[in-house]
Amino acid sequence: MTRAVDHRPESWHAALDRLQRDGLPHALATQVTGAGSTPREPGARMVITADGVFDTLGGGTFEYQVIEAARARLAGKDGSAEGGMSLEAFSLGGRSGQCCGGFVNVLIEVFPGSATTLAIFGAGHVGTELVRLAAPLPWRVHWHDSRPGVFPDWAAEQPRLECRHAPDPTAAVAALPAGAHALVLTHDHAEDRALMDALLARGDVASLGLIGSKSKWASFRSRLRDAGHGEAALARVRCPIGMAAGGTGGDKTPYAIALATLAELLPLTASAERPDQRGLEPAELRAIFNRSTP
User: Fold this and answer.
1) pLDDT per residue as tens digits for the range 280-290
2) Cα–Cα dist 96/260, whole Å
3) Where in the sequence does UniProt note compositional bias of the Basic and acidic residues kind (predicted)?
4) Would you tell me which of 25, 71, 117, 284 could form a disulfide with 81, CB atoms 3.0–4.6 Å apart?
5) Gap between the Cα atoms of 112 and 275, Å rounded
6) Distance between CA atoms of residues 31 and 249, nearest Å
7) Which of 131, 181, 182 is nearest to 158 (CA)?
8) Does residue 153 sit in the same domain as residue 253?
9) Are 31 and 104 in contact (CB under 8 A)?
10) pTM value?
11) Are residues 241 and 133 located together in one domain of the fold?
């Protein structure tokens, strides 16, 4: 029996749930008040991303201006979204170029998405445990392996996780976003070395860890130095990773090493504190509502 395909557009609440689960930047626009003739009623919502719109506030120039305002917030001053709220007032006869004659206030809430990207190279035992343990954390995880068909079926259901077949280590590294945290633990030492070379050459990786023994790192360090990488860059590499579990006499099971590795990462991924903001200032709210009063 052939299943029917649902071609209906995604609703705002379905899009909001998906984007929140995937840790992607988005904005929620809510009509909070309306006076006079307006396209929609208070409570109408739409979700906006850099390249998509889900649901509607009524269409027309007014809606395009809401989308434009939301995308400007998503772009931010430095190309990255900053979370927070803003209240926009629209006169549906002047600012919006419409003839309704009403007034609308729209609350735009920006969700910047996951602040941390973790790139894991290797889908072996430790890599698999790392991905499982990272699931509750608000990180985006890019899981790479050069071998086809190695990712488990359950990975398709884990939020904020992208599985990437990566036969070319250099291309995989080049595709990473700036500021990613990288862990190298593939099945092959030559591949590990190629990945380390490419990651160090980028110069914008937030942190870099390599699985293996101290003797492995001594060998890699010598070759990477010969390849032109300076002492300052090499000193930032953590090897072995998971030392709290894999040290002398410690638990060297994949789960324990993965757990210790994530514990090492947590202080490195802590985001800078932002000023406490619990909404719009009362004076700002009063000014906006006063401007919108017919």
Assistant:
1) 566 665 665 56
2) 55
3) 273-284
4) 25
5) 16
6) 61
7) 131
8) yes
9) yes
10) 0.75
11) yes
